[in-house]
Amino acid sequence: MKALLLGTVFGGLAAFLWSSISWGLLGWHEKPLHFFQNEDEVSAVISTHAIQSGVYLLPRGPSQKGMNAEQNKAEQAAVMAKMQKGPIIFAAVRSGGFGSYGQAILRQLLSLMLAAFLLTWLLLQTRGLSYGRRVLFLAVAGLAASVIVDLPNWNWWGFSGSYTAVNLVDFPLTWLIAGLVIARVAKPRVSESSLQTAMDRALAHSEPKSR
Questions:
Q1: How many CB atoms lie within 10 A of CB 127?
Q2: Could you tell me where the DSSP H helices lie in the chain?
Q3: Could you give the dihedral angle defined by the CA atoms of residues 194, 197, 203 and 205, in that order, rounded to the nearest 10 degrees?
Q4: Which residues constitute the domain of residue 130?
Q5: Three-state DSSP class for 77?
Q6: What HEC string does 103-138 produce?
Q7: Can you say whether residue 39 is alpha, beta or left, with left for phi > 0 and alpha for psi between -120 and 50 degrees?
Q8: The model's pTM
Q9: How much is the average pLDDT of 5-20?
Q10: pLDDT, tens digit, for every residue of 35-51?
Q11: 60 lies in a domain?
């Protein structure tokens, strides 16, 4: 429990520190982004037609309500034609604005501590890894998380290749840096059987060989 707690707190703080540098100073997450022309006009249209906060998809999928098989097939064909023509939009809309920046920072810190908790727990399930391999284990876990999330977004929703590539680099880098801390403070406990085996091997090597 002590190792898990230390990995959660210090690993989460290390990840938060790097994320602050990555997003606040490096600016590489913003470079792949594009911006709308006539932003005020676009904002007014969104405010008029997005009646509540949430995730929006354009074009909308077939409703499938009150349709027979033939009507449903025709509706799906119409939606597919719109998707082939474009534009396709997959967007999160906050109708009431951003809210408290301080609360958002706190939520980010807590979410990174939760991630550190899960990764520390995974690390504590391993045995026999050196410090360097424990750090590598966490960096690969960060890469896996990015592959699971970012590649489907690139494939299905049109997230740009450059935006996706930044995340594929930043995620493992975040948990490589945090992993330097987690692997130091959260060392897997050696079981009694493993300790006894190590002692037996040491004694066997120390005994004089019979002639």
A1: 10
A2: 2-21, 39-49, 69-85, 101-124, 131-157, 161-185, 192-206
A3: -100
A4: 2-35+100-202
A5: helix
A6: HHHHHHHHHHHHHHHHHHHHHHCCCCCCHHHHHHHH
A7: alpha
A8: 0.80
A9: 96
A10: 999 999 999 999 888 88
A11: no
**Is residue 73 predicted with pLDDT exceeding 50?**
yes
User: Would strands 54-58 and 89-93 be described as parallel, antiparallel, or unpaired?
Assistant: antiparallel
Inter-CA distances, 79 with 48, 50, 57, 75, Å? 23, 20, 12, 6
Structural domains in the chain (count): 1
Phi, psi of 36, rounded to the nearest 5 degrees: -75, 145
- Burial (Cβ within 10 Å: 0-12, 13-18, ≥19) of residue 136: middle
- 91 beta partners: 56
CA dist list (Å): 43 to 35, 36, 48, 158: 12, 9, 9, 21
pLDDT band at 97, cuts 50/70/90?
confident
- Joined tokens for residue 98: 């951003």
Provide the terminal-to-terminal Cα distance of the chain, rounded to the nearest Å: 50
Q: Are 82 and 124 spatial neighbours (Cβ–Cβ below 8 Å)?
A: no
Q: Does 127 fall in a domain?
A: yes
166, part of any domain: yes
Inside any domain, residue 45: no
pLDDT tens by residue, 110-132: 999 999 999 999 999 999 999 99
Q: To which residue do tokens 């290390």 refer?
A: 14
- Looking up tokens 């450059």, which residue turns up? 162
**Which amino acid would we find at residue 46?**
I
